[in-house]
Design a protein that fits this description.
- The protein contains one helix and six strands.
- By secondary structure, the protein is mainly beta.
- β2 and β3 form a beta hairpin.
- The protein starts with 7 loop residues before the first strand and ends in a 19-residue tail after the last strand.
Length: 91
């Protein structure tokens, strides 16, 4: 018996408009349901829920050094195939 994997991620954001611009326009993720303080996206088969966090603490979240970069904790991503050497999206 197999079950369908339904990955789910919660992401705190400080600006829903910026989240829509990044995930919807730049990355091309389809927008799902939304309300005044959150929005869902289809993030390459994963349900991504961006919740507005206006507590002012987003800038104070924990980061860990990884390969010389400061990586936020927690974080997530998706691995996509590389076509024609054009693998990255930068913002």
């Amino acid at each position: 018996m197999t079950s369908a994997l339904r990955p789910f991620h919660l992401v705190p954001v400080h600006d829903l408009s910026a989240a829509r611009s990044f995930y919807g326009e730049l990355l091309g993720c389809d927008e799902g349901r939304s309300a005044s303080r959150w929005v869902d996206f289809n993030f390459f088969g994963h349900q991504l829920v961006c919740h507005l966090d206006d507590s002012g603490t987003l800038e104070q979240r924990l980061n860990n050094p990884v390969d010389g970069d400061s990586v936020p904790v927690p974080h997530f991503g998706v691995v996509q195939p590389c076509n024609n050497g054009n693998c990255c999206v930068t913002a």
